[in-house]
Amino acid sequence: MTTRTALITGASAGIGAAFARHLAAEGFSLLLVARRAEKLEDLAAELRDDTIRCDVFSADLTDPTAPRAIVDFAREQGIHIDVLINNAGLSGKTAFAETSWETLAGEIQLMVTAVTELAHLVIPGMRERGWGRIVNLSSVAAFSPPGASLLYTGIKSYVLNMSQSLDTELKPDGINVTALCPGFTHSEFHDTMGTRDTASKLPAILWQEPEDVVREGWSAVSKGKPVCVPGTVNKLISNSMRPVPFSLQYVLGRTFNPFKNG
């Protein structure tokens, strides 16, 4: 049997690197994508062996040309993308009205447009082969009430809803799509965003390790679950913030979907 390959964005650290290690242990070959080429090469060297192929591609997904460049590279290397882990992300540090449009556009490109375009680019191949898995990184923040100027919350809500819509559409083709919605996770995210001091004051019970997030997320997409909120505390938080459980919302969406027979 030909080894399946997973494309992972934001693979140089945190949840992305944990996904790379987890999927390599499951026997998947990898195409690792992030801005920091050196970190990717180090991770690839760690994971390669006689059966696991591990390619790297340095790209900044705030660049609108990046998704197509990644998929073109895969095609040139003879790589079929069977698993897509849309993990790359960031969060702004200033209010919407006080942030430059260039910065806001970069956030939208990275976490909305690139996520959607990469899925659109790899789905035809998955359909042709009759098998695929897509994990889109949302956040427990997607369940929270609207907050002043928090573009991140709106973006992650889009990822949550888009993932459920894609799963409904693509499941008959053998493709499972899951929105993975972690809460606070130990990674470089808060260091990069400059929020480490604030984050470190939060209770330890709110935090998870990236390996635990990945384990639950991969189990969910493997079982065909469209939404995964990892961790008991995060499940309690998300369920308390929405009057209708997301599982029921998903059923209602499938039941009243005008395109389900189209």
UniProtKB/TrEMBL annotation:
Keyword terms, alphabetized: Oxidoreductase
Task: Note the Gene3D superfamilies from the entry.
Answer: NAD(P)-binding Rossmann-like Domain
Cited CDD domains: SDR_c
Q: What protein family does this chain belong to?
A: Belongs to the short-chain dehydrogenases/reductases (SDR) family.
Q: Which residues form the Ketoreductase domain?
A: 4-161
Q: Give the taxonomic lineage as stored in the record.
A: Bacteria, Bacillati, Actinomycetota, Actinomycetes, Mycobacteriales
- List the GO molecular function terms: oxidoreductase activity
What EC number(s) is this enzyme filed under? 1.-.-.-
Which organism is this protein's natural source? Antrihabitans spumae
**UniProt enzyme class:** oxidoreductase
Q: Which InterPro entries does the record cross-reference, listed alphabetically?
A: KR_dom, NAD(P)-bd_dom_sf, SDR_fam
Which Pfam families has this protein been placed in? adh_short (PF00106)
- The name on file for this protein is SDR family NAD(P)-dependent oxidoreductase
